[in-house]
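Explain this fold:

***
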Amino acid sequence: MIDRLPDRLDLLATADAGRVLRGRMKLSAMPRLLPALTSSDGDLQVSLELGKDPDGTRYLRGTIQGDVQLQCQRCLEPMTLSLDLGFCLGIVRELEAIHALHERYDPVLVSAEPTSLADIVTDEVLLALPLVPAHADNGKCHAFVQDYKPPQPEQRDGPFAALAELKQKP
């Protein structure tokens, strides 16, 4: 077991060797995730297991835990979302191999170049974020919603009001 996460990793070779990696990854190291967050402070606890199934499929299983700050779309205030994610990826080198993967795996396509672990973690976190972040407890947004008064529609003359005035003239 390795207690630090490298920036890049040869997933195929590491899966062949069967390794477990654990460590922390800073949110600021995930630039594609930052636009969805209100703060880049903090980090995520990441655990990765790479290996081979008995059928020869190389896999990457992992967990991601930590808190991220999002903007509630109901009250527009920051909110904390606690993540506790699990994922299982089948490592493939060619597109054709994706169809041969067992359904328990989501595919991750790799090349001969080492893969960025931050990119994999970013993808999994982005998939787990809610489409419309909102406080789970409506009470946190209740004061905002209770004080909200929608704009009053202004009174306008109908489209034929000018014609009615012309008809009234002698």
